[in-house]
Amino acid sequence: MKLKLLTASLLLACSAVQAQTIDVKDAWVRATVPGQQGTGAFMSLTAKDGARLVGVSTPVAGVAEVHEMKMEGDVMKMRAVPSLDLPAGQTVQLKPGGYHVMLMDLKKTLPKGNIVPLTLRFKDARGAESKVELNVPVSIVAPGAAGPSAMPHDKMHHNPDSQQKH
Ligand SMILES: [Cu+2]
Fold first, then answer.
1. How far, in Å, from the CA of 10 to the mean position of ligand 1?
2. Neighbours of 86 (CB within 10 A)
3. What's the CA-to-centroid distance between 164 and ligand 1, angstroms?
4. Contacts of 62 (CB under 8 A, 6+ apart)
5. Ligand 1 centroid vs 1 CA: distance in angstroms?
């Protein structure tokens, strides 16, 4: 029963996104505790014809930016990037330890199970803008991980084939 509901909502999400040429998968926002000012949003982006992610907004944060994380010597550093390139047909992953959407100046606590509305703005090769509106679930980082970059469990896929026997 639960699986069937999940499948239905995934299909809905897919058809909504396919109207655009940009496919967004596996989006999640990391849960926060009271008083926490910032968190990250993560997802996989695929632009069929190539595009750039040029902006992000959400009502739950005063500031939303695309960030990049890089090792500089022994230190993991993070900085805002003006845009993120999505080469045609290639999936670009925003994930802990790499590119991410940074949400700062949070207006409320985001406990697990909340839904965060997120608007992504893209520009295609001709400079035309498009928007993708998402409702992103809040979840918690795998406990016991040494750090955000050491997370082997962030690639759970729901295999539609396994649900055929219903
Ligand atoms: Cu960041």
1. 28
2. 22
3. 40
4. 104, 105, 106, 107
5. 38
